[in-house]
Design goal:
The chain has 585 residues and is an alpha/beta fold. It is built from 23 helices and 15 strands. It binds one RNA strand of 77 nucleotides through helix 4, strand 9, strand 10, helix 14 and helix 19.
Amino acid sequence: MRAMKQIVAQLVSDAIATLPELADAAADLSIESTVERTRDASHGDFASNIAMRLAKPVRKSPRDIAASLINALGDNEIIDKVEIAGPGFINFYLSPVAFHAELETILEAGEDYGRQPQRDHPKILLEFVSANPTGPLHVGHGRGASYGATVGNLLEAAGYPVSREYYVNDAGRQMDILGASVWLRWLEASGVDVDFPKGGYRGDYIRDIASEIDTGGIEVVTAEAVTDGLPENTDDNKDEYVDALVARCKELHGEDGFNKIRQQSLESIRDEIRADLEEFGVHFDEWFSEQSLTQSNRVDDALAVLDERGMLYKKDGATWFPSIQYGDDKDRVVVRDNGVKTYFASDIAYHFDKRERGYDHLIDILGADHHGYVTRVRGGLEAMGYEADDLEVQFVQFVTLYRSGERVQMGTRSGQFDTLRQLREEVGNDAARFYYVSRSNDQHLDFDLDVAKSQSNDNPVYYIQYAHARITSVFEKLADLSLAWDADNAKATMDNLSSQQEKALMTALSRYPEILELAANNRAPQHLVHYLRDLAADFHSWYNANKFIEDPDNVRDARLALCAATKVVIANGLGILGVSAPDKM
RNA sequence: GCGCCCGUAGCUCAGUCGGAUAGAGCACCAGAUUCCUAAUCUGGGGGUCACAAGUUCGAAUCUUGUCGGGCGCGCCA
């Protein structure tokens, strides 16, 4: 199934092939890139600027080139009329037959309409969210989740094999701090009151975890035993204090005792995150554990590869990676002087491992605050023999919540709106998913709770869903009247779809595959969002002006075909966005 | 200071390998429903595309500079 634009581009391409002097000049040119939808119906359906692009190399005027090109267009039933316009645009007016054929394609393809055939290369690994398992997801993660899930759907629709992965940072100091935090809350619940570390995790969920985990075999100790000889718990000293608590917990309960608490804590949070995302319609194929990377020695393996290639050196007792060679500001430490590997070391190993697992193209969706890491991680991949471009990074900028025109202060302490779960409960999954991807990912997002929540025409998600529900309702009404839609008759009578509004709606429908491709190629779901809004507007506009159940059979069948096709495209598009397409509202 | 993202209507935003008169929603104003969902539709006003140069047939789009905003610059993760 080819998009309409490709069909037009092919005709242009064929015409050029018959004109040697143009064919040479156009050899490096993607013909399809010269063809675009017109903004104004008075310019026809498609326009090509190819004559202008070729004017310089061919040394002829654009209008002359356009004239010979038009002359060379073969006979076909797709195009009604071709005109030269303005400085040398070629405007194509498509025949109704072309649009009617597209309607049939939509109805035949159904939920596959707009999707590309499955290919087996390149295999894409899409990593997103990957929030540390130290607490519940907040509204910022929600944007990464919605964006990542939608990009995944878009890539799949474009035919790519894509695997969605969540990297669980379940190793390292933050996990120790989590373990110590839970440990202290558990002691507290057992009547042992210890000054809670300023550097610890203070949220209420820590108490919940403390009350749920299995602490069998771990003895309650006294407050003195915990704090004896520890540094002061002050803002200046919070890192030392919390690290000392971790060490103390290991002394008192042994590594096994501490691990038991830490492991259950992180698993509890990870499971909570997973459930939250599942409810949000965001699914992962793999929950990749950082611990597993360390346990299987893959960090050491990756460092060994770098070492063999001469891409590591020692200085000041630490081991460094010369990332300056790959455009970074400075070289980076991979093994600290105390022998502990840095986060960067696992990150290199993790991305190396992704490639080694057979994924050709890696996409990371990261918060905007991580943009400093890209150069060095790419450098790491390159140093290990892969291409820097194998890693693509998409950044998601920050989210600011607004309520009643006021900025909502975020942060756990404010007790205000903070978690993704609260947001979902307030505005609903559909509105949240839609709103999150309605703006380009590299732009800051003002999330207006009042708009997202309003079940009115302020809210584009309901506007689109309403179009879908309206169509369902038409077919129900039809049944109520003991009428039926004769789809075969519709094919034979599509000439009845001839009004301006019908033309506009058919044009909008036929754009869908092109929009999907655009959105997938650019990892830009907002194109789909805006498209669906436009499509719904074209539908509502037409629907409002035409009551057609009472029409003669031939007209009714054709118009119902238009309804059915619109329903298909809206459902498909909303499906990509992870938004439901309700039959009733 | 250096690097990355950005600056388009009163507000929120589209405009993606440079293209024709810069678009949409909200808000505002005026209208439409004995009729398949009015969560709808029709019409209207509203712009120095931050600013200044440059590139060319043509710039919101590319280049440079200035101003303004966000983020990042650890042997943290």
